[in-house]
Amino acid sequence: MNDNKILKVSSDETYKCIKEKSNENLNLFENIIGYEDVKKIFKMSLNSDKPVHILLVGPPASAKTLFMLEFLKLERSYFTLGSHSTKAGMFDYLFDYRPRYLLVDEIEHMPYKDQTSLLSIMETGILTETKSQKTRSTQLKTWIFATCNNKEKLLSPLLSRFIIFHLKPYNRSKFIEVSNGILLKNDIPSDIANEISEVVWKRLKSKDIRDCIKISRLAKTVEDVEWIAKTLNQYRK
Ligand SMILES: Nc1ncnc2c1ncn2[C@@H]1O[C@H](COP(=O)(O)OP(=O)(O)O)[C@@H](O)[C@H]1O
Ligand SMILES: [Mg+2]
Question: N or C: which end of the chain has fewer CB within 10 A?
């Protein structure tokens, strides 16, 4: 990931990013195909003097996590999974390192208690925590970028503090464009890449780009693609 050094700080998918470059020339979003308008708004948010929080809501494999990983390139960014906010000590991290960008993937799994703490950070920048009858408090300037599959488990005051983008499932032409783009980038020959994208959409009736990536790892020829698709179809539920 560029010149950034990513340290895996624990085994629970929480990473911290130590950057050695400024936020310019980061090739932010270089790994994401399409979504040019969404990328533009994210860039506007990054250029804003005051935090603008953004939530991506969308079906699986719509590049939500990919967006969060791109933001790890930013200086003073911190990535965590909603389900790990307490376990990974997200609030200790916020107090200790005061990140400028907090990236929460799958925020719908964040416990309500932690969602409530986010409300205050998002509105006023004030972070408060009460532990063992002791309260500590600090002021932060932190942008929150988050993702979720399903908004229903999120507190409505939390939702109202975000700009929300609903990513739609890919249509056929977008699916083929994204799939081919990824496969070509992974050095899959174009005839095989094309075949995989078409077969996954048409024969497997899948809208999941991950299926294309899986087949691309198995197939060495166009015939392999055909055969794998036929076999997968036979064993489908
Ligand atoms: N627009 C896109 N550009 C590049 N890769 C994509 C795009 N959409 C999906 N993918 C690929 O699909 C897979 C799933 O993406 P991910 O960000 O993990 O999805 P989500 O978090 O929305 O479930 C990844 O391998 C990713 O590279
Ligand atoms: Mg994801």
Answer: C
Task: Please give the pLDDT value at position 14.
Answer: 53
Give the ligand whose atoms come closest to the C-alpha of residue 174: 1
* CATH number of this structure's domain 5-166: 3.40.50.300
Nearest-CA residue for atom 8 of ligand 1: 63
Question: Residue written as tokens 């040019």?
Answer: 36
Pocket of ligand 1 (CB under 6 A): 32-34, 58, 60-66, 178, 182, 209-210, 213
Q: Alpha carbon 59 to chain centroid distance?
A: 12
Domain boundary assignment for the chain = 5-166, 172-234
- Global pTM reads 0.88
Q: Ligand 1: which atom is nearest the Cα of residue 66?
A: 17
Q: Max CA-CA distance within the chain?
A: 66
Residue 175 · residue 164 · CB < 8 Å: no
Ligand 1 atom closest to the Cα of residue 62 is 22
